[in-house]
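Lecture notes, unit on binding sites. The following record was shown on slide 14. It pairs a sequence with INI.
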Amino acid sequence: MQHIKTIEGRLDAKGLRIALAAGRFNDFIVDKLVGGAVDYLLRHGMQKENLTIYKVPGAFELPVLVKRLAQKKDLDGIVCLGAVIRGATPHFDYVAAEATKGIAQTSLETGMPVGFGILTTDNLEQAIERAGSKAGNKGVEAAAAVLELIRVLEQVD
Ligand code: INI
């Protein structure tokens, strides 16, 4: 097998400044995602003083927060956390779509690495499964993704 130059991210958060952006809606689920993300980052060398948690009412408000944080230019990455759970009305679809679109657009426009840890589930059970039980913890996954992405992007020359 020929040697092919491969760039990968070191999972070392030492010295990085990361913000968590979390929606309060369904906070008993979101708190589990926040806890998972914090735990992951601290266990990967991040200093507590370099981590800030910002809270907004719900997932719909996350894009504008992420945009403002990305414009501050003193952050290396942002982890978005929220829980959008389907109800009896189409509200779910609007909130989930706007949050996803707005966050992705800001990340692309600003170049800020953003981890997407917003659950979009059909019911509460699916959300619980993804917030630290049967299906893992999406907050941990989003924190891991942003860390890896930051470390890859800093090697792109
Ligand atoms: N916000 C969420 O984060 N999750 C939801 O499941 C949700 N639902 O279903 O309504 C939700 N709605 C609130 C929304 O994010 C805004 O905070 C609200 O519309 C005020 O702008």
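Take-home: Residues 18-152 form a domain with the Rossmann fold fold (CATH 3.40.50.960).
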